Amino acid sequence: MSELAAGHTLLRVTRAGIDTYQQPVVYMHRDCEVCRSEGFAAMTRVRLDVGSRTLVATLNVVVDDRLGLDEVALSEAAWTLLDPMLDVLARVRHAERAASAGALRAKVFGARLDDAQYLALVQDVMESRLSDLELAAFVTASAGDRLDHAETTALTRAMITVGQRLDWGDGPVLDKHCVGGLPGNRTTPIVVAIVAALGYRIPKTSSRAITSPAGTADTMEVMAPVALDLPAMRRVVEREGGCIVWGGNVRLSPADDILIRVQRPLDFDSDGQLVASVLSKKIAAGSTHVLIDMPEGPTAKVRSEAAAHSLGSRLAHTAAALGLQLGIHRSDGTQPVGRGIGPALEAHDVLKVLRNAADAPADLRERALALSAALLDMAPGSNAGTGLERARGVLDSGAALAKFLAICEAQGGFREPPRAAFTADVPAPASGRIAAIDNRRLAKLAKLAGAPTSPTAGLETGLRIGDTVERGQPMMTLHAESPGELAYALEHAATLQPFVLGEVP
Asked: 11, 140, 273, 342: which sits with the fewest CB atoms below 10 Å from its CB?
């Protein structure tokens, strides 16, 4: 290419200052010479080259004079990925067709993909060669049970291959994961504290909320920093035996983080992608023995015996294929756990359990003990059936609390969770006995109040199936960080009634 010709493709790089939520987007004026000569239009996939660095992004076209004809502006995600100097020149051209485009199209039309095709697809995901529209098509084509056992294993293996993998040396490395769908089920900080207090390694990477009012990372973050990098995570584990950090920052399965970004607004799940997401991160984190908590209930993520069996089989098959020791703990998913739903409210429940407070939620304590016991019984060399006694001993003695606080300090310092500035009770519309609880509606109300974006937002309730209520009695208390958010949640509370009332026997 001549210098003259090359100059037609060069634009000055500027920062747009626009948050596109991790999707790399660039902005060019419709009348700039590059747009016209290359035939660019809105949503075109373009490639930017700055020195040895390359970025593939989606183009948005500017039609007024807020952007110069010689400029290409980068969204925050694009700027982070390319990391250019301000006003440097970038060569802009059409992006090459993604190598996995054919495989993606085949999957959309119902074909089975093999190991090589999934690896190519995941590599393209990592290199931003697929647009969010294409990623949404893949997520949709994989929804439900559209990935078989072999495809699930292939996707999991591909996700592991393109990320980093930790090695903790000899000895067992324990971990647990909950498939989700149960508001307030924040057992991980308690389990990690118990297991680490007994001398086992348990480096826990957790997610932020995807479709829920709080992820474990969101809850932990109100008590201690969670955005640790890999060296910092390793230092915490070497010092205290365990950690609870945000998995997105350590990027052990970065392709999964990108797919989760697309899954979040779609608000539906794929069993195959769920298994690949969970197990790729566990294996990448160096775990050898993993316990899966699987709550089952009509409004949980796993809604039936058949669904639990199907997901359990898929998890077990994939784990065995990848050499991971896996246990599955089936649990009650018919009603929430604890009292709080939302990051800070769940953190208060966790601390009450660890502190052996008189008003600690008994269901959260017993569930955490049961999971700790099951995980301890999986550990090599343990005496089967002794896990519960060991777990209860370190919790009752205060050793689990001491270990949790030590982990928090190692991660950057412990802080007491805050409280929301605004609260309001939601009264019972009638008298009766609680016959059922809709977990999804409880979660939605907590999100309408501002969780998890507002850490102190959410709701509290101590009601359970079988309890009786009188008309006008508070059924739950909404928490919000502003009067507007509180009013918005209250407005919807009457129509999103999560408690199904029956006759008092």
From this structure: 140
